[in-house]
Amino acid sequence: MKEKNKAAALVKSIWHKYNFILIFLAILVVFLIINHGATTMTTLMNIPRHSTVIGIIALGMGLIILTGDIDLSVGSQLALVGGLTVMVFNNTNNIALSFLFAVFMGVILGLINGVLIGLVKMPAFIVTLATMLMYRSIAQTVMNSNNWTIYQLDAGLSQWQPLWVIGNQSVFQIPILVLILVVVVAIMTYLSTSTKFGKRVYALGSNERAAQLSGINVSMTRVLVFVIAGVLMGIASFLYVANVGSVDPATSGKNYELYSIAGVVIGGISMSGGRGRILGVVFGSMSFTIIDKIITALGLNPLINDTIKGAILLLAIAVQMLPAITQKLRKARTA
To answer: In 36-175, which residue ranges form alpha helices assigned H by DSSP?
Structure first.
């Protein structure tokens, strides 16, 4: 009986700590079974490659959700930052300057959200809902004022090819995008787990009042979280431009706020804040990418895509709530 209890406790511990990996592996196995003979090394590498942009955005979203806040404007931020980055590149023919501009713009947009939420104390949902509308509208207005139909990189520039290489080529069969993703994940994992700032983020999400009483500057922590998310948005926008070569403000980044939130939830971060691991966000994002590939492999109507993703998101939240529900049922029985 003791051995059974130990085994059950071990399984419960593994699930609690690594459920995001187990969910990812389960979905991956389903994909491999469906795809069977058609699976190649390139196919497998395409999973993290196609997850890079949304994965980096989701890392920022994960940090925000750890504090108990949310950001609905990330898709619109990508449309605006990406579109303006295309303009900068076309006018400078300089990759480094375009990258720095993308990060700078990401910081500015993140700072706007952070100041309104952290210092002015406006609700995150309302602020980011408003900026979601504003940022995409500005992106469309700038495009229309220049009589363009889309933000398009000038393929005649000498630096266009090196930029395309960053977004589409591989090193030893590993896409450059994936290498960049690994570096960003490593930095964010270290930031969230091994720094005082990371501890402040978790403390804020767990109990804001207690965090404030312990001396944590709650307002500035919130601002910094949104600024860091802005930096990640800038990096993701630059990589999106390098990969796709164009930005359509009407469609680029559409639903990215939902996909990034879903990646965070499937990755095991609690929507109430204070619990979860940033590393899990990447596995959550890749899980969503694999779902896309499963739908394609099965030949299903692509219009059903979001229905399936929505159902999986509900299931992921239900799994998160299961321990609390079980505890309530036990209390009800003993009462």
So the answer is: 41-66, 74-92, 95-114, 124-145, 160-168
